[in-house]
Every structure is written in structure tokens, then in C-alpha cells.
Amino acid sequence: MASIPQILSWIVRDVYHGWSPLPLPPAGSFAGQTVCVVGGSTGLGLASAEHCVNLGAAEVIITSRGASRANAAKEYLEGKAAAIAATTGASECRVTGMILDMNRYDSVVGFAEDLKKIKKGQGGLDFILLNAAVIQSRFVQSPEGWQEELQVNTLSSVLLALLLMPWLRAERRNRYSPAHLAFTTSSASLANDISKWEGWSSQNGGEGILNHWNKKETWPPGLSGGYGISKALLMYACRELVKMAVGPDGKPWVIINSMEPGMVKTEIQRHILENSPALEFLGDIFVSAVFKTSENGARILIMGGLTTEEEHGHRLSRLYPHEEYMNMPVVASPMAKRLQQIVWNEITGILAKAVPEAKQCLTELRSP
Ligand SMILES: NC(=O)c1ccc[n+]([C@@H]2O[C@H](COP(=O)([O-])OP(=O)(O)OC[C@H]3O[C@@H](n4cnc5c(N)ncnc54)[C@H](OP(=O)(O)O)[C@@H]3O)[C@@H](O)[C@H]2O)c1
Fold it and tell me: Which of 54, 87, 136, 320 is the most exposed place for a label (fewest CB within 10 A)?
């Protein structure tokens, strides 16, 4: 896990980034592109969608679990799109709201099917940002039987990527350059003590790492608890997806990145302190004073739609360079490398058993 001095230095740097935002990419960076922000109804997702509208996207799709939230975000973005069109004279960005509940596999499968119809045979989507996530302060299970962070942040995020990747690969021949598939990650993914995880894996006679955490007795609440674990599991799965995205010519047929926005004031904090009104009040003051705005935090998320083939697989962070990340023990140690494979096998095993479409996609992705 990252050391305490390392984490403290990241916090100090991140607070500074609140006053010193990453510069925006040049005007027109997303010109003519079709973008989908999963979890784009609020917070960092909505701010990312807004940046894409401002930077010239032709169509922006956002998702929410609820129609009213999807419609509110759509109307907000349409207002921005109209203002941009009026000032630049360019054609107005089309905004679409779609319903997606990542607590249920059938919703993820249905959403992926709908998304794949967009620009079918014409290159598909240009940039898909898998951004939805939750933090829970209580043990809440999804209808699929998984603790909600494991369900939404890990299993359904990987499922969605798996369902979309064969389609993105097929659309590559209809595009000049690869499409972008990007994940919003968190430094909480680097702050876990993973030393015992390998021993819990079924290949070592254990119950399985995900099964281990999927219990009220073992699941730790909060930012450095279940949330960090779910993001670490997603990080390992992403690193395997990066390998699968490389074609027989050694080049990526879809460019995959993860981006770390740092501490941002959004709705996600609401569950951390909700059990204590006093802490909620103090926490709100602290978050308002120290955390950056969504507009600021989303600047790095949209960079996941603008990376080059050479940057395939990079983790984009303002806290450390990619090379430093690649040498962190949580990624580079022999144990972490074994763990990555174990986690991938567990996640794909769970998904292949529960979702026939995932099994089919895995077969397609494993064939050259
Ligand atoms: N805020 C931070 O400090 C911070 C730091 C590092 C990383 N991140 C990451 O940034 C991303 C965005 O977080 P945020 O802070 O912007 O959080 P947020 O304001 O709570 O937004 C979360 C988004 O995810 C969607 N979502 C939640 N549960 C879902 C589900 N079951 N199915 C489908 N969509 C669901 C929400 O949509 P509806 O509620 O409308 O359905 C919403 O659009 C997350 O991946 C988070 O881990 C945040």
C-alpha cells in the first residue's frame, strides 16, 4: 500500500490543485465526436459532459438511474450547448439521457445493447467514460447479491467494458484512429493493505477475494474501506483489459486509460458522514474548504478521451507521473502481479457465470 508520507504529500498537492486547475485542452478538441459519460447526471460526470459540449462534441450521452435526474442533466447540458452554438455559430451539440442502473446486470446488458446501435458501422462512439461509482457507509447489497461498491464500482464497471469492447474492436476498421474507453479511478485504490488477499483466493484454497469482502462481518465502511477495495479490484481488472485491447499488430484497437481526479466536492461524500449529523456538518465545511470543484476535477477525466496510442494503458494523475505509478508495489511487486491475474480470473468467472453475454464477449476477446 502507499505509505502515510506518500498519501500526505498527495493530499497537500491535491489541495494546491484546487487553486491551480489543469489547463483545458484547446477549443474544438472533441469536435464532431460522440461521447458517452456513464454516471453523467451529477458531479464529475456532469462536469465532464459539460466540458465535452464546450469543446465541440457533436453528441453527448449521459446516464442516470432515474429519468428525472437524467432529464435534469440533459436540460442543463442542452442550455450549455445552445449557448455555445449561439456564440461560435457551430451546430448545436445533441444531448441524450439514458437510464442505467449498475446494481442490476440486466440493466447493464440492455444499456450496452442500446449504446452499440449508435453510429453502428460508422465507427461507433468516440469516447466512453465509465465514471459511475458509489461510497457506502452501511453494508448494502445489490439485487445480484454483492455489496453495492463491489457491484457498481467493480463488477458492473468491468461488465460494461467487456460488453462494449468487441463492438469497439469491430468498429475500429470504420475509424481513422481508435476510440477511447476510460475509467474514473481514485487514489483510494492504492491505499489498501493487499498482503492477505492472495491467501483468500480460491486457487489458494480460500473463499475468493470478492467473496471475502462481500460479508457484513468483513466489509469495511468508508473511503479507505470498501470503496478503496472496490477501486483496487477495478484497477487490476483495467490492467488486464488494457492487454486485451491490443490487436495482432501490437497496436491498441481501443485506447484505455484511467484518470484520477483527486478530492472533489460532489454528491459522493453524502454517504460517508450521513450517520452523524454533527460530523456531516463539520465534514461539509471541511469538504467545501479543501476539495476542488467538479469543473476543475473533470479536466483530467476528459483527457482520457484525448490520449494517443502510445499512452494506451496510462493512469492519468496530477499527483504522480504514470512511470511512478507503474513502479508502486501495489502494481509492480511480484505479489501484486499475481494478484492482478487472480482478481481478473475471479471477476470474469463471476460475470461469465451470471451474464451469458459476458461469457460470449470474453470468448470473442480471447480469440485473435
Ligand atoms: N469526488 C471525489 O472526491 C472523487 C475522488 C476520486 C475519484 N472519484 C470518482 O469519480 C467518479 C464520479 O464520482 P462523483 O464524485 O462525481 O460522484 P457523484 O456526484 O455521487 O456521482 C456519481 C454518479 O454515478 C451514478 N451512479 C451511482 N450509482 C449508480 C448505479 N448503481 N448505477 C448507475 N449509475 C450510478 C450517479 O447517477 P444517478 O445517481 O443519477 O443514478 C452519478 O451520475 C466515481 O468513479 C468516483 O469514484 C471521485
Answer: 87
| Cβ within 8 Å of residue 219, ≥6 positions away | 139, 147, 213, 225, 226
**56 close to 30: Cβ distance less than 8 angstroms:** yes
Residues with CB under 6 A from ligand 1: 39-45, 64-66, 69, 100-103, 131-134, 152, 184, 186, 261, 263-264, 266-268
Nearest CA to ligand 1 atom 43: 39
Distance from the alpha carbon of residue 188 to the mean position of ligand 1, in angstroms:
14
81 pLDDT tier (thresholds 50, 70, 90): very high
pTM (two decimals):
0.96
DSSP code string of 104-167 = SHHHHHHHHHHHHTTTTTTT--SEEEE------SS--B-TTSSBHHIIIIIIIHHHHHHHHHHH
Backbone phi and psi for residue 177, each to the nearest 5 degrees, phi listed first: -140, 160
Distance separating alpha carbons of residues 283 and 110, to the nearest angstrom = 38
- Per-residue pLDDT tens digits for 297-355: 999 999 999 999 999 999 999 999 999 999 999 999 999 999 999 999 999 999 999 99
